[in-house]
Each structure stands twice: as C-alpha cells, then as structure tokens.
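A.,

Following up on our hallway conversation. Structure tokens first:
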C-alpha cells in the first residue's frame, strides 16, 4: 500500500529560480560569462528544416 503523505523516493523540495543579482552589492545585476560557440555540424535548421516545409507555406 502506498503512503501518499510521505515524500517519494529521492524526492526533494523545489529549486528556487536562478538569479543574476549580487546580494553583496545591493542587488546589482551580474554581467559576464562567455558567448556560445558555433552550432555543431548537422545540428538542424529549426523551423527552416525540410520537415516543417509544409507549415511555412
């Protein structure tokens, strides 16, 4: 019999949204990071791919 009042196996609480603000500076936005590299070869063309050609007419 299942006890639905107990948490599930390996169940954890919700993860809060990620923030890009620095708490130590009064909530200033943190800028930085590095740009993404080029897309891998044959990674698809999204909505422009032949599979969606009939939808774009």
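Then the amino acids I'd put at each of the 57 positions:
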């Amino acid at each position: 019999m299942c006890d639905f009042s107990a948490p599930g196996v390996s169940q954890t609480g919700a993860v809060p949204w990620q923030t890009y603000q620095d708490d130590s500076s009064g909530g200033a936005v943190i800028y930085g990071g590095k740009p993404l590299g080029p897309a891998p070869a044959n990674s698809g063309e999204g909505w422009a791919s032949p599979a969606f050609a009939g939808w774009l007419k």
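Residues 25 and 31 are 13 Å apart (CA to CA). Curious whether your intuition agrees with the design.

B.
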